[in-house]
Amino acid sequence: MRLSIGKLGDRAGVNLETVRYYERIGLMPEPFRSDGGHRIYDETHLSRLSFIRRCRDLGFPLEDIRSLLDLAEAGDSCAELVPAADKQLALVRAKIEALKTMESALQGIRANAERCDSDACTVSSALFGCADCCPCCGTADLAGA
Predict the structure, then answer these.
(1) How many CB atoms lie under 10 A from the CB of residue 12?
(2) How far apart are CA 24 and CA 34, in angstroms?
(3) Considering the domain 1-59 in this protein, what is its CATH number?
């Protein structure tokens, strides 16, 4: 199989600039070049790019992807993935908790702003939960989120 950079990107679901970037930073191997200098990719490139894309979809940072590629290329057991998966899972869970906190704060701000009838209440007051300007804002504290 011979693929252009555009077809490779399409098949793997990434932008061609992303392919070039991954080549520059060493995640993707240099492709064969035609006599005219065009990049020519094969199944190995597609497989590697798809692997990288899957890792990115799961939120792994590029340096972790390098390590995962090393494990994959060495043919290591899937059990070797457990520490990296645990680390990433902890990060995802922390992000979920932070998003829940933000969601709660935004729901409170929205509810307070919807029922507020004070001319003294400004956007800044509402965002920071200023109880001095009106009682409705005193309960929405985004600063702690």
Answers:
(1) 22
(2) 19
(3) 1.10.1660.10
